[in-house]
Amino acid sequence: MTTEKKIYWVVGIFSVVIIFGSFLIPGDRPDKEDLPWHIEHPTPNSVKVFGLTLGQSTPGEAEIRFKEQAEPSLFKSPEGDLSAELFFEQINLAGLRSRVVLTADISEADLKSMYERGLRMAGTGSGKKITLTPEDIETLRKAPISSLTYMPGVRVDEALILKRFGEPSQIIKEEKHGTSHWLYPQHGLDITMSEGQKPILQYVSPNEFDILVTPLLKQASQNTK
After folding, report:
1. For residue 111, with 0-12 CB atoms within 10 Å meaning exposed, 13-18 middle and 19 or more buried, which class applies?
2. 5 vs 30: which has the higher pLDDT
3. Structural domain of 148
4. What is Dmax (Cα atoms) for the chain?
5. Distance (Å, whole) CA 212 – CA 47
6. Pairing relationship of beta strands 96-104 and 82-93 according to DSSP bridges
7. Which residues on neighbouring strands pair with residue 75, listed in sequence order?
8. What is the pTM of this model?
9. Mean pLDDT of the chain
10. DSSP string over 109-169
11. CB neighbour list of residue 162: distance below 8 Å, 6 or more residues apart
12. Count of domains in the chain?
């Protein structure tokens, strides 16, 4: 093995150790607010994660918190549902490069108005993506965050999820997609697990948890028929 290859090999191993270390190290060593299992409840029906309180903090505050600018977009599902999202392609939390998607709490009427004012429209694998006007983008940045989706840049096994989040109150399996949803209603948290894939963690306020669970239960019921 050449000296150059040895250097690349050592750097690669060291990087993996750092990445897994961010999940394995005790919660009081890095900044606690950088850890996905550090979940606070300012009130019984509120969730604070990554230093952001859902239903109160804004995407603009998230940009300051993450030290990155988000990409805002409006999405229209095949069923015609509209949602306003802000996407962080790459942020660093506890030494782990991850992606985060925020959903802005915008009324249905305002979403429709934004859609009509949209500058461009492009097809996606799950509907349409609309480019918003600068004025509507500013509106998104000032709106409350209704949900936060965290996608770590590393695969995590079930044992580690159990260690950090505890036993889920319920697990719902999606046979069609080969995924399992680990549900923590007290935290408004749905962890999507899929063998060989990175987990997806979605947080909402506990009193809005049914919005996540109802479609899963409906689909699970259909699969058993």
Report:
1. buried
2. 30
3. 3-224
4. 64
5. 15
6. antiparallel
7. 83, 129
8. 0.84
9. 86
10. HHHHHHHHH-SEEEEETTEEEEEPPHHHHHHHHHSPEEEEEEEESS---HHHHHHHH---S
11. none
12. 1
